[in-house]
Amino acid sequence: MDRHAPEPTSPTAEFGKGFVIQPTTDHEYTAILIHPFRIDGKELVVDLVEELYASWPSDRTIPTDVLSGWRVVLPSSPKTWSDIFAKDVAAWFQVAIFGADPLTDTTAGQDREVGGIRAAVPYIDYLLDEEIAALGGAAERVFLGGSAKALAVGIWTLLSQQDPVRRLGAFVGVSSWLPFAENVQRVLGSPRAGATEAGTQNHGDVFVEDMMAPLLQLHAHGPMPNLATPIFLSHGTEDVHVDVELGRQVRDVLTRAGFQVRWREYIGPGGQGNWLKVPEEMEDIAHFTGWLGCRRAVS
C-alpha cells in the first residue's frame, strides 16, 4: 500500500472519520497525530507530506526508510459551527477565541471548552490503548503528537491519564498551548486551589482537579513524580498563530507536573506561522523520538 494514501477507519458516533497509514513492513511503532482546527486527519497527512517534500533542501535525503515499520493513526474531530468562518469546521472543542491570531490569551471564554475536552480526551486515550494492545502491550512503541491550537487535547490526555506513570514512546508538541494552564499551575501549587476565600468554587480549578485526579494523587503522596513519557516541545519565536509565550507556559506546566521536557525554539521568516521548520525542527523531532540513528525512543 502507498504509505501516502491513508485508509479510512470507522468513525464513532461523536467523532469524524479517521485515517490510518499502514506500515510497509512489520508493525513496530505507532504514531497518533492530532490534527489542528479546520483540517481533518486526512488533510493533515497530505499537508505534512507536501510541506516536507516542498521544504526539504534538495541536497539532503529525506530518511523515509526508517518509517517503514510505522503505523500512523490520524483521528478526526467532530465538525462544529464556527462564527469566524461561517461554516462547520473540524474542531476538537469549542474555543471562544478560535480564529484569533496570534493566540495570546487562553482564559477568554474557556468554560466553553470543557465539554469538548472532556469528550476528546477519553477518545484519544482509547486510541492509545488500541495501539498499545496491537503492539503486544509495548506502550513505549506508541507516540502521540500534534500541532497548534488543537494540540491542547493531547496535552490534556497526558495530564489526565488513569495511569500517570505509563511510558509512551514520546509526546511531541509543535506550537503548543494549554487551556486552563493558569488553573493547572494553581492546582499544582495548592491542594485546595478550588476553594476561594468566599467558600465558592473556581470552576476552572474544579475542572482541572477532576481531570488530573490520578496525577494529583501521586503528588499528594510525596515529591512530584518523575513521569515516564519523554516530551519534546518546539515553537517558532515569530509564530503568527500561537504566541511563543504560550508554548513556554506549557513547558513550565508540564515540567512542574513532573514530566521531563525538552524545549526548542526556532527563528524563522516572519509570517511562517506554526508549521514545522524544515529541516531543522523535523530533524530534531526525528532524533528525539529515535526515527534516525538507533530508531528507538530516548530513555
Walk me through the structure.
This protein has 299 residues and is an alpha/beta fold. The chain has one domain (7-289): Rossmann fold, CATH 3.40.50.1820. It is 31% helix and 17% strand. The protein contains eight helices and ten strands. The chain has helices at 41-55, 114-134, 152-159, 181-189, 203-211, 213-220, 244-257, 280-289, and strands at residues 7-8, 16-21, 29-34, 70-76, 79-82, 87-90, 142-147, 170-174, 231-236, 261-266. The chain has an eight-stranded mixed beta sheet with strand order 1-2-4-3-7-8-9-10, with helices on both faces. The protein has a two-stranded antiparallel sheet with strand order 5-6. Helix 2 crosses helix 3 (152-159), helix 4 crosses helix 5 and helix 4 packs parallel to helix 7. The longest helix has 21 residues, at 114-134. The radius of gyration is 19 Å and the shape is globular. The chain starts with 6 loop residues before the first strand and ends in a 10-residue tail after the last helix. The model is unreliable at 1-11 and 293-299 (pLDDT under 50).
